[in-house]
Design a protein that fits this description.
Structural class: mainly alpha
Number of strands: 0
Helix content: 55-70%
Distance between the termini: 33 Å
Number of domains: 2
Radius of gyration: 18 Å
Largest sheet: none
Mean pLDDT: 76
Order of helices and strands: HHHHHHH
Strand content: under 5%
């Protein structure tokens, strides 16, 4: 089973629909598109992967990377997406370690006083790291 098919099944459970027709209607896409996802003729584009991640409360950057790894054809492309996934996992682990060592009180979005250093949520840090990795990957082109 592909990750795309598993995600479609997870979406059906989360949205409490029983058919691909109902799922397609909820997502605003055609039933044919769902069928193409299931058979592997098509994969989620990045926007659809982002929407699915939001609906399933998943990290959008990791899901986009997993989908791109699944649809990659060339070995060097697959290797690049594996490296991105590994780095995303490493970045998330570092952030989680930092959060676990911090005080249990949530930090304010912008500290009071003279310090204007922005504070980021875990999701914002992952998103920023994702775009940095993507830019590094596209640099040779």
């Amino acid at each position: 089973m592909t990750i795309t098919s598993k995600l479609l099944d997870d979406l059906k459970k989360k949205l409490e629909v029983s058919s691909d027709y109902a799922l397609a209607k909820r997502l605003g896409i055609s039933v044919q598109r769902i069928s193409n996802y299931r058979t592997g003729r098509n994969h989620f584009d990045d926007l659809m992967a982002y929407r699915v991640a939001q609906l399933l409360d998943l990290d959008p950057a990791e899901l986009v990377a997993q989908i791109n790894l699944e649809r990659a054809k060339r070995p060097e492309e697959k290797a690049a997406w594996r490296e991105i996934l590994k780095q995303l996992g490493d970045a998330a682990a570092v952030v989680l370690l930092g959060l676990s060592l911090a005080s249990p009180q949530p930090a304010p979005a912008m500290p009071s006083g003279g310090d204007t250093t922005p504070r980021y949520t875990l999701c914002e840090l992952r998103r920023r790291r994702w775009f940095d990795l993507l830019l590094d990957l596209l640099q040779p082109f």
